[in-house]
Amino acid sequence: MAKEIEKAGIPIVVLCNLLDVAKSVGVNKMVQTVSVPYPLGDPEMSPEEEWKLRYHRVGVALDALTKEVEDQTVFPTKI
Amino acid sequence: MLKAIHYINQFFGQVGGEDAADYRPTFHDELVGCSKMLNEMMDDVEVTHTIVCGDNYIASNTEEALKEIIDWLKGQEFDIFFAGPAFMAGRYGVGCGTVCKAVKETFGVPVITSMNEENPGVEMFHKDVYIFRGGRKATFMREDLQKMASFAQKIARNEELLPAEIEGYFPRGIRREIFHPEGIQAADRAVDMLLKKLKGEPFKTELPIPKREKVPVAPPIKDLSKATIALVGSSGVVPFDNPDRIQTASATKWGKYNIAGLDHLPKGKFKTIHAGYDPEAICEVPDRGMPVDAMRAYEKEGKIGKLHDYYYVTVGTGTTQAYAAKFGREIAAELKEAGVDGVLLVAT
After folding, report:
1. How far is B59 from chain A (nearest CA, A)?
2. For a Cys-Cys bond, which of A79, B50, B136, B226 suits B32, CB 3.0-4.6 Å?
3. Domain range for A38
């Protein structure tokens, strides 16, 4: 799906857990998520911590939309 | 008699389903589940042990999982390593490929698995591992195991191993020179091929060049604070009654849902219908799979101009690449039409 959207000229960032899969299908911009059953959250965390995590990773992905990249790039996250 | 060890996931290892996907590797000298069936299929190879490991554990803690498995294998004697079959199960396929590749690199033994052609593990590991062409689901267990077993038997008997296409595994991209079986010279074959091409008849190259489609990076957004951003996903997060009846697996459609005025996706109004993972965490907090809350916060802060009024979603388990590409084209057309400037796609 990501490739077709990017082909249409719309910048796209894929947030996913299995980065190697995303790389092998040819995604250009990637941000890693926490896991498959809870990509942007963690039931083990307190609601406040979890919100910080989701807010942070979505923010990294939004910034990635503005970045010029040459090749496939994984944008690092801190939380 | 050669010795073999067999790797399977938590499901086929009879530990449990998605709830047990974080299961750490365990090692069994009494064969578990489909290992028994595999062992019974071979006269010249004995399966001595089963390794069982959770799909999420190997995917999320790859280094630790591999270390545990390789360290244990160092104490074992074996000549062949099996994994799977993984059918169309993506995480299982990637797990089988990851373990097989590490085993081959460490011990130099033949590594054999099986997957359906739609499994992402094929694209990732076909160069490193014998991956036999497998069925879509577990009803193909016997058939797929049989292919793996027959090939191992050939290795055990020192029989000549034929090209990928004849043996039934995905080509590894290795070229080996042979004499043409019917003795037809290269010049004759080339002219025959050219004539067929000129007549528009089908012909087959002897030097296939693998190609991987790369998409040029779309131009970046210059000013995020004026941009409209849309959320897209494969997490299966839909309104509670799943109004478009998107399938829980092998989806053939996608949906778009209005989120104008919503600060988050409330529990009980949205849920996930994805059948490929444990839905509990996302059903409890749907924003974990479709982060409307974080996007709305960034909209209020002015970091982005606008969160697009609709999000677009399908279920990404067992969904074929052909359907995924079709969904992508259809969604892209809608996004263009709506003037969306950028997309975050949450994949599961």
Report:
1. 7
2. B50
3. 2-74
